[in-house]
Specification:
Layout (H helix, E strand, L loop, with lengths): L2 H17 L12 E7 L4 E10 L2 E10 L2 H14 L4 H16 L8 H4 L15 H16 L5 E2 L2
Parallel strand pairs: 1-4
Antiparallel strand pairs: 1-2, 2-3
Helix pairs in contact: 1-2, 2-5, 3-5
The protein binds zinc ion.
């Protein structure tokens, strides 16, 4: 995939998921939840997970934010559903490496599947926090953290 294609896919995906977010709404059967906030942009996200036998059986989110944070939460909930907690943590690690430029080592882009489109966010450094907010919130939910996550 060349850079122009990647950018086009990125913009399409942000528009599509930003307008029609998947898995939007409170999951009443959730047993892992967390809230996150990105003060720079004003994004708010609440993540709901139902974890059964080390597997994420269901996932949803609620929130108010820009198209990028909404699209990221939409794709995150789609991608982690049906995965083990270990796989979800590995996705978090790779996603984080990808959007931050991978100073701690190169990300496994192939393992990210559709999420690899978020490489496009690196062009807009101020948006990196919007894209990664749902992922930090995911990790907090899996770790059972009580305090609200902040990207600051
Ligand atoms: Zn944002």
């Amino acid at each position: 995939m060349d850079f122009a294609e990647l950018r086009e896919l990125y913009q399409e995906m942000i528009l599509d998921h930003g307008r029609r977010p998947r898995n939007f709404g409170r999951l009443t059967s959730a047993n892992h939840t967390a809230e996150g906030h990105n003060p720079v942009c004003g994004d708010q996200v609440a993540l709901y997970l139902r974890v059964e036998d080390g597997k994420i059986a269901d996932a949803s989110f609620e929130g108010k934010g820009c198209a990028i944070s909404t699209a990221s939460a939409s794709l995150l909930t789609t991608e982690v559903k049906g995965r083990s907690v270990a796989e979800a943590n590995e996705l978090f690690r790779n996603f984080h490496l990808m959007v931050t430029g991978g100073r701690e080592g190169p990300p496994d882009i192939e393992a990210l599947g559709k999420l690899a489109i978020f490489q496009g966010v690196r062009e807009f450094p101020i948006r990196v926090k919007c894209a990664s907010l749902p992922w930090h919130t995911l990790r907090a939910a899996l770790e059972g953290k009580k305090e609200k996550v902040s990207t600051e």
